[in-house]
């Protein structure tokens, strides 16, 4: 059975809008420690990537890490150094046939995520 892929988007909760221009790195975590780089991309004006992080049919079960580099994006909101630099989300894909959407809701001071559809 082919997998449905992996996608993400970033929402700026401080400004109430999508966060464009956020660098995103996707890595697979093999053997619990070794990271294998799968993709580097940047969010577009809609806060999404232009293409899926993992295309339909290519998703595998296992552990992954998404890293969002947010410091530069939020640097203009405060005169102090940004509190958040990089946000790394580690998650497990248990069903490669399902679609995994992993959004980041972020402000200069906090973040949350969930498994979306």
Q: Describe it for me?
A:
This protein is 3% helix and 41% strand. The two termini are 19 Å apart. The protein has a single domain (6-113), classed as Immunoglobulin-like, CATH 2.60.40. 21% of the residues are buried. The strands form three sheets. It has a four-stranded mixed β-sheet, with no helix packed on it. Strands 5-4-6-7 form a four-stranded antiparallel β-sheet. A two-stranded parallel sheet has the order 1-8. The model has no long low-confidence stretch (mean pLDDT 92). The protein is globular and about 45 Å long. It has 117 residues and is mainly beta. The protein contains one helix and ten strands; from the N terminus they run ββββββαββββ. The chain has one helix at residues 71-74, and strands at 6-7, 10-12, 17-18, 23-30, 34-42, 62-69, 86-93, 100-101, 104-106, 111-113. Catalyzes the hydrolysis of 5-hydroxyisourate (HIU) to 2-oxo-4-hydroxy-4-carboxy-5-ureidoimidazoline (OHCU). This is 5-hydroxyisourate hydrolase. One of its GO terms (molecular function) is hydroxyisourate hydrolase activity. Substrate binds at residues 9, 48, 114. It catalyses: 5-hydroxyisourate + H2O = 5-hydroxy-2-oxo-4-ureido-2,5-dihydro-1H-imidazole-5-carboxylate + H(+).
